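[audit] Reproducing an earlier prediction to check determinism. Same input, same settings, fresh worker. If the tokens differ from the archived copy the diff job will pick it up downstream; this log only records the rerun itself.
[audit] input (71 residues):
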Amino acid sequence: MGWIAVAAGTGSIVAAMIQGATGVPTAASRILTIIGPTVITLWTAAIGILLIRRSRPSPGSALNLAQTDAR
């Protein structure tokens, strides 16, 4: 999934290069500066959700069994 963030970052760089070359915002640079950060934000949220899911112990894991036995 890392390629998504790389692609979004590359799009943001391209937008900056277009705006720097023309000196004024163009339609392409405006669109890319909206899409790039939005994709990176969604990617960060998705990675966070995946990490949270991975950190939870599975129902049959030793950690859950030890907590159940302690009660």
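[audit] rerun output stored. Observation attached for the diff report: The mean pLDDT is 85.
[audit] end
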